[in-house]
Amino acid sequence: MIAASLIVVLTITMAAGTKRMVQRNVIVRNLRSLEALGGVTNICSDKTGTLAQGIIIVRKAWIPARGTFSVGATSEPFNPTQGQLDLQDAQPKDIDFQLSDAEGTPINPEKVVARDPTLQEYVASLANLATVHQVQGEWHGRGDPTEIAIQVFASRFNWNRLRLATGEKPQWHEVAEFSFNSDVKKMSVIFEHDQSQKQWDFTKGAVERVLSSCPRYAVGDEIKHLTPDVKQAILRNMEASARLGLRVLALGSRTDIRHADLVFRGLIGLYDPTRPESAPSVRQRHEAGVSVHTLTGDHLETARAIALEVGILSTKMSQIPVDIAKTIEMAALNFGKPSDDEIYQLPLLPLVVA
Description:
alpha+beta; Calcium-transporting ATPase, cytoplasmic domain N; 4-stranded parallel sheet; membrane
């Protein structure tokens, strides 16, 4: 027999819960939603802007036959003069980033780029439509967060779009822009050099997609055929950077825009710091018996590193049964393939989908 006052008690309880949620800046318009919220067993979260802050900075960059650049910590993400720039001769796949000297040696970027044509072409391939400028001693960025981060890195080498493409006598003119497309996973911008009248196509995007358009690559001062072995080495460098929690993009360029083929220039790794409250929030959900999943468009290695950082994945993966460990991570391409019956048979829903 149900007590007549039960409905009243439940209503008062949920109203009290609503008041507590208002104190935490959460507005509840329908009490029934609280009941549904109380039955949640799984939470799926994006990474950028949710688990992470959405304040993106360049941490690593790799140029074939030149080495790996590392950007030191900075409290001003838009300021290209903050954060030490180091150069390590080795490729990312050959560097143990746990060592104290893994970053390499400090360099002066403007002096290095001035005497290195290969580096100049790499920096030029960073061209985009974001802008970074200083106003009354404070640095500001305008554009997409990823584009701004790349423009800040380019500005370290004195390659600033506002300086080169604006003013009374600009050195470069923008001709066309092909915005990022989720189908092709890359974007391109065409600039014309004022003095030579030569047009350049600068492209960046997902490593696999850019590589598919690059039959050649720049190695030192030469342009060579990009063999399957070289491609595999590039992918291993990408994975090594992604394991650091970086989103890795490939860069390519061409001077003959009538042809589709690009020259591969290098990789750039971007870091989006996790929110300070992400790890405690995930831990609280786990204590309440709720599973937390992350779904992202980043590379699986990047997603795994972030999931470990915030506690979605356990640091003791070796102690997890093999059948469960196999289902913890899943490529996004495979996520929609299993039938409902196959999903129900999984010992655990994937915690990371990327």
